[in-house]
Amino acid sequence: MTKPLLSTLALAITLAVSGCAMLEPQLPKADAAIPAAWPLPPNTAAAGQNVTADTSATKEQAAADIGWRDFFVDPKLEELIARALHNNRDLRVAVLNVERARAQYQIQNAERFPALDGSVARNRSGGNVVNPGDYYSAALSASFELDLFGRIHNLSQAALEQYFAQEEGQRSAQLSLIAEIANTYLTFAADLESQRIAQATFDNQQIAYDLVVKRHRAGAVSGLDLSQAQTTIETARADVARYAGLVATDRNALTLLVGAPVEDSLLPQGFDLKVSGIAPLPAQLPSQVLLRRPDVRQTEHVLRGANANIGAARAAFFPSISLTGSVGSASNQLSGLFDSGTKFWSFVPQISLPIFHGGALRANLGVATADRDIALARYEKAIQSGFREVADALALTSTLAQRRQAQQALLDAASRAYDLSKARYQYGRDSFLILLDAQRTFYTAQQSLVAAQLAEQGNRVTLYKVLGGGWEEGTQ
């Protein structure tokens, strides 16, 4: 390679690098206007400490660093999550989107390198030509566009950022899938527990109703007492049927999320309060941890890609230089194609200067700028939405714990009241209506405690998700 050619190539590379720096604008800073820390309610950490499992893997770690196998302690739930990550069709589509984005980046990035093609041709001519007959040729041609102003580089960078965005989208989809499976699993367990309570209530009420029927036949109780006793039985019977339907639909939802049939051995047998565990959050948890969430990082990569597209749109205003060359052999006889004296070569540099495009170039730059501004607004909105999700989950951490404790106290009081009312009714101290009211209060308190426990467990999973945890399998 000659020295002038080396100098020319060095100059072209220098211009290309400087062109990229000049034409791609500086990435704008996001102004999400959120506080530096979340507004933690009073006693949030203390309340959370009372209801969470104390696992060594979750101490003094950010949620994004805690793998889902370390967060969830129920082996059945862990197995269901592992199966879903392998079989779920929505997650499979997200993985394929990553593969597609990777291939698109490779296509775009290939334009930064020379294209080399080989060709073999046979031409036949006749009529009033000078040399009629067959004409054979074999050639090797190369083409390359000098990226003086960074257009190809910026397009390649935009494709790369799109690939990164799809990767973060896959992680976000995985995080959402894990949280959805956990919530569905908890709902299944809660509905199963509610069904058990309703069935037990129905069985007890059936025994009590049979006694009331006998006493009514003996004339010891009125028809009003008999009708009131029947209302409690029918209410419990309706609840048994309702919760049976909910359990069936919960299993169908779990099967859809897992992407394969779920055996009975992997289903919860009751409502376990130790499904998940996370350490109490520090009092000064910074809001910057939002930037580690996959959905926020996805919008950031989209913003970077849109900013690179502005550089490509600006580069379209400047001349483009293409180099095309070929070398080969040509002969009017196939047997003499590679003989001496048949070689040929060509070198065709071409400069394209945009003169008039009817405003298309300026409009394209306007579209690229608008896309960048839209991506910036979406990035800021993603940060704001994430801040609100975490703030809501933190606000509910304390209140849900207080609600569960209150419901537990209410259930204890309702149980004592029911026992006392039943004893007083048997001794003729209270009417049957008072006993029925105590029964309904006790039954409602049981169901309300299950609902409070479900809400608390679900909020714990939500907090883990919104803090960016769940897309890694194990704690590193």
TrEMBL record:
<feature type="signal peptide">
    <location>
        <begin position="1"/>
        <end position="23"/>
    </location>
</feature>
<dbReference type="InterPro" id="IPR010131">
    <property type="entry name" value="MdtP/NodT-like"/>
</dbReference>
<keyword id="KW-1134">Transmembrane beta strand</keyword>
<protein>
    <submittedName>
        <fullName>Outer membrane protein oprM</fullName>
    </submittedName>
</protein>
<dbReference type="InterPro" id="IPR003423">
    <property type="entry name" value="OMP_efflux"/>
</dbReference>
<keyword id="KW-0449">Lipoprotein</keyword>
<dbReference type="GO" id="GO:0005886">
    <property type="term" value="C:plasma membrane"/>
</dbReference>
<dbReference type="GO" id="GO:0015562">
    <property type="term" value="F:efflux transmembrane transporter activity"/>
</dbReference>
<comment type="similarity">
    <text>Belongs to the outer membrane factor (OMF) (TC 1.B.17) family.</text>
</comment>
<keyword id="KW-0472">Membrane</keyword>
<keyword id="KW-0812">Transmembrane</keyword>
<keyword id="KW-0564">Palmitate</keyword>
<dbReference type="Pfam" id="PF02321">
    <property type="entry name" value="OEP"/>
</dbReference>
<keyword id="KW-0732">Signal</keyword>
